[in-house]
Give the backbone structure.
Amino acid sequence: MSAAIDTLRLTAEDASGLLERGEASGDELAGAYIEAIAARDPELHAYLHVVGERGEGVPIAHKDVITTKGIPTTAGSKILVGYTPQFDSTVAARCKAAGLPIIGKTNLDEFAMGSSTENSAFGPTKNPWDPERVPGGSSGGSAAAVAGGLAPWALGTDTGGSVKQPAALCGVVGLRPTYGTVSRYGIVAFASSLDQVGPLTKTVRDNARLYALIAGRDPADSTTVELPEPVAIPESEDLKGLRIGVPREMNEAEGIDPGVSESVNAAIRLAEELGAEVEETSLPRSVDYGLACYYLVAPAEASSNLARYDGVRYGHRAEADELTALYSRTRWEGFGAEPKRRILLGTYALSAGYYDAYYGQAQKVRTVIAREHAAVFERFDLIVSPTSPTVAFRIGEKAENPLAMYLSDLLTIPANMAGLPGLSIPCGLSEGLPVGLQLIGPQFSENTLFRAGHALERAIGFDYVPERLRA
Amino acid sequence: MAIGKDDVLHVAELARLEIPEGEVEGVQGQLGAILEAVGKVSELDLSDVEPMTHPLDLVNVWAEDETAPSLTQEEALANAPDAHDGSFRVPAVGG
């Protein structure tokens, strides 16, 4: 039976249908993904750890910053090798309670710091559309697993664009939810005022289903809130009455590939044909200052969050005969280059004499960015832009240049700084590689994002099975 | 903004990162380049703007003080690189 399950094509909704109608058992379904992993993951390396649980529900993959009881959780770092959590994160517990067996834990940039998965201590993930290219990051393993038919759906986390950008580069759908709608309890912390868990799926409807399952207040995370309205699984195929803004700076920024612009512009024209009112708008400071603001706030928070890795309670420990040396040596040996860079940068930005000029100023810029977005959303229901300025780049192309790598998140960062939700859907191909369209709305506008994303997805008709893997 | 070698070593000490002698210069160069880029935030005059510390306007989130199951001592020590007699074991402090 499992031979008949085409995991490249099957959506989570399809999988759920097979189970409900008794056309496949939970065992057969999970087995089909394990077979696909055996066939394709040696090349793609989407997984750090294959678990292969069997159960009655649609299997799921978790990014390896999502704490799973009894299942190793490394955050892509050598410093957590050998760590086996004694508890479940809230999102893992909610998936478990809904009967979703875990297929495995997916690869990522170390501590979710990066845009290509090349910062993983365990080697990069390859893009299913072209294995010489990156899948994006940091949730690159989850995006590649969904695009490569190695999971029907997956969870990732997004701090500066780590769900949206890999979704774009792998031709799948990724949601970064409104800050505070999904619990961070048990998520390996990077930058706490920005980190959010989000679903990566083949379709917008699957995304809404998974979001509905994980969202909502959690007493274990006091930054969470109840959703103001239940999640609506989208059905509408038009965009009548929707006001869509096209921020000039986000659509004409230097460094956007012409092929990406072409594809995004075609999607915007399609939105008009579907009944949306489309108009140009502007977010000048958000784009100009967003990246600099992010690369102060996020490292500052990271430098504090990553202080816990000290070689005492879990993970790697270096040899030393004195405690301070043990801390300092353990941390230098255990962390990779990017976390160390960000810890140092963040520590500097928070240190006496530099705090006001760097961290304090960045927090004020964050207010400016939030206000600028709020003003735009007085006139528009949504704004749109490319998710990533480029399609998937070659492995190694930006690995030696952190600043070039940081530019991958130029267009995803502003909304994240403002705490706003964003959805990336595939909108076409450029040079044979997927292009992502980013839809951003005001806080708690996920239902609008799903509605618009679904209508556009239907109209665009993007085939999410990578061309080279089509039968 | 350039960052001096002494600054790098000071920050590394604060961050508890023991940079091997031969790598200090490389770290200094990278941090300098990134600081120059992020220093862009100081172009704006924001003396009248309040800092944003959190995306949501949450104030005083209270919770009932209720007991709930937590890790046992054994579970808490299960991942320790070194444990002894129910505690984490570390080398001498300031030895």
About this structure: The first strand of chain B starts at residue 83 and ends at 84.
